[in-house]
Amino acid sequence: MPPLYMVVMGLYTILTAFIVYLIVSLVLRSRNVWEQVMAILVLVPFAMRLLFIK
Amino acid sequence: MNSKLTAWASLAAAAVISGLLTLNYADMWRDDVIIPGPGVTKVKWLSEYNPDLRGTLGDTRVYVLEGKEPGGTFLVLSGTHGDEAAGWGTGLILVEHAIVKKGRVIVIPQVSNTAFTNNYPQEAHPQYITIPQSDGKGRTFRLGSRTGNSGDLWPDPEVFVQYPHKQAYSGEEIRNANRAYPGRPNGTFNESVAYAVQMLHKAEQVDMQVDLHEGQPEYPFVNAISAHKRASDVASFAALEMQVHDLNINTETSPDSFRGLSNLEMGDMFPRLYAFTSETVNPLQGKFRGITDEYLTVDGVDAFYDKAGKLGYLFTPWPATGSPLKQRVGRNVQQLQALTAALAEVTGTEIGWERIPSYSDLMEKGVGHYLNPLPQEGVERPKMRALPGFWKYWSKTW
Predict the structure, then answer these.
(1) Dist CA B313 CA B28 (whole Å)
(2) Please, are residues B205 and B103 in contact by the beta-carbon 8 Å criterion?
(3) Closest CA to B351 of B340, B337, B338, B342
(4) Given A27, A33, A52, which is nearest B11 (Cβ)?
(5) Which of A2-6, B201-205, B379-383 has the lowest mean pLDDT?
(6) Could you say which of 1.20.120, 3.30.70, 3.40.630, 1.10.3470 is the CATH number of the domain covering B42-395?
(7) What distance in Å separates the CA atoms of residue B132 and residue B129, rounded to the nearest whole number?
(8) What ranges do the domains of chain A cover?
(9) What's the CA gap between B311 and B193, in Å, rounded?
(10) Whole-angstrom distance, CA of residue B56 vs CA of residue B163
C-alpha cells in the first residue's frame, strides 16, 4: 500500500486531468468566443497544477 | 467568426501561457551561482549525511572552511528560510570571502534548498534579488520563501503535528524547515533535511551551531539571539562582545515549549553542542510595508515603516536609513565573531578567523564587496539537478 498522501495526490491528478479534459471539450464545442477566451483563465492554473502539484 | 478557429486559438494561448509560466517557475529549481573563496577547503553535499536526499531539491551544498590550527567546529546554518536574505547573505560571505585560522567552520548557505525553489508571488515578493557590486553588475540570487516547495511537501495537513513532541502547528508549518528538527528518516521532506543536519552533527562533532534568521520589524524577537538553555552563558558573553561594537542584541533562552527549532532540538540531542538562533530585521517580511520589490530587502527603506517607527509600533529602532541588507549582514558577521570569542571564553574551545569582515566593514563597503565578482567571460548558472514532487522519483535516477 503506497503512503496515503501518494493516493490522495494520485486522485487529485486524475481529478485535475478530468477538469482539463472537460474544459477543453467545452471550448471546442462552444460557439461563444468570450467563453472560449475566458476558459484560458481556468485552463492555465489547472494545467500548472496538473504538471507540478504532485 | 469561425468558432472552431477561436477555440483552437484559445487552447493554444492557454498552452503558451502555461509553458511560459512553467519556464519562469522552473527557473527557480536551478541552483544559484556560488563562487567559493580561498577559505573553502572542501565542498560536500547534505545527501552525504542522509542519502534519501540525493536527486531531490532537498540536497544542498555544504562548505567546509578548515583552519591550519586545530580547534572547535562551528556549524553555520543559513537559508533555512529563503526570503530572509541577511541569513543566506551571511552564509555566502563566509563561503566566498572568509578564511578560518583555527578550528573548522561548516557553512550551509541554503539549508532548505526547497524553500529557494518557490517564493510568495501573492505577497509580491520578487523571485530574485541583485546585490550591487562595484563593477556595476552585481550578483543575482533567488529570493525564496519561508516554506518549502508545495510540490515537495504537498498536501498541507489541517494541523501539523511536530515529530517527536506532538506539538500542534498550523498546517503550512509542515513546510517550515525550522519546525522539522530533530528530523527522522522516512519522515516528511523537511524532516529528511533536518535528519541530514542531525547526522552531520554526529559525523562532524559540532561544538557550536547558529541558525541565521530574519523577522519583521513588528515582531518582538528581532535583533536578538535565542540560546539553548545550556548555551545562555555563551549568548550573554556574545551580547557583551557586540556591545563593544555599539551593537545591541537581545538574548533569550529558547523556551522548551516551542518545539522543532534547530537550536532547541539539536541542543537537546547533543550534550556537547551550544546552539543558537538569531534574527535581524527584514522589512520585506512585515505587514506594514508599502512597495514590495527587490530594493525593499536590499536597501531596507520603506515610508510606511518610517511612519510606524514614529508611532512606536515597532520592536526595533527605525532610523531614516531603514534596515538595509548591509547592516543586517554586518550584524550577523559581527555576531559570528562574538559567538566564537564567547565560546572560547566560556568553554575554552577555540575557533579563530583569519579573514572575516566586521560590522563597520559591511556598513562602509556593502555586501557585494565581499562576494566574488563573476568572471569577465560570464558564468552559466548550474543546470537543473533535481525536480520537485512526484517528478523527484525520476530525477533521483539521473
Answers:
(1) 35
(2) no
(3) B340
(4) A27
(5) A2-6
(6) 3.40.630
(7) 10
(8) 4-52
(9) 42
(10) 22
Q: Tell me what ipTM this predicted complex has.
A: 0.90
Among A28, A32, A43, select the one facing B14 at the smallest CB separation. A43
Partners of residue B239 on adjacent β-strands? none
Question: Best residue in A31, A44, A49, A50 to probe B by mutation, most B CBs within 10 Å?
Answer: A44
- Average pLDDT of the segment spanning A36-42: 95
A32 exposure class (CB count in 10 Å sphere: 0-12, 13-18, 19+):
exposed
Taking the CA of residue B185 and the nearest CA in chain A, the distance in Å comes to: 15
> What is the rounded CA–CA span in Å between residue B338 and residue B239?
7
Per-residue confidence at B316, pLDDT binned at 50, 70, 90? Answer: very high
pLDDT computed for residue A49 by the predictor: 84
Q: How far apart are CA B333 and CA B39, in angstroms?
A: 16
Q: Which of B2, B8, B11, B25 to mutate to test the interface with A (most CBs of A within 10 A)?
A: B11
Domain boundaries, chain B: 42-395
CB-based contact B7 A48, cutoff 8 Å: no
pLDDT, position A53: 63
CB–CB contact A47 B15 (8 Å) = yes
Specify the pairing of strand B168-170 against strand B159-161.
antiparallel
Give contacts of A31 with chain B, Cβ < 8 Å.
3
* DSSP letters for B306-348: HHHHHTT--SS---TT---HHHHHHHHHHHHHHHHHHHHHHH-
Is some CB atom of chain B closer than 8 A to the CB atom of A27? yes
Give Cα B294 distance to the centre of its chain. Answer: 17
B16, B119, B159, B211, B266 from B178: Cα distances, Å = 38, 17, 16, 9, 11
Contacts of A39 in chain B (CB under 8 A): 10, 14
In sequence order, what are the residues at sequence separation of 6 or more whose Cβ sits closer than 8 angstroms to the Cβ of residue B365? B357
pLDDT at B393: 83
> Which candidate, B179, B177, B172, places its Cα nearest to that of B157?
B172
The cell for A10 is 494520485
Cα B279 → chain centroid: 11
Q: Which cell is B196 given?
A: 541530514
| Cβ contact B154–A54 (<8 Å) | yes
Here the cell at position A39 is: 476558459
* Cα separation, B262 vs B168, whole angstroms: 17
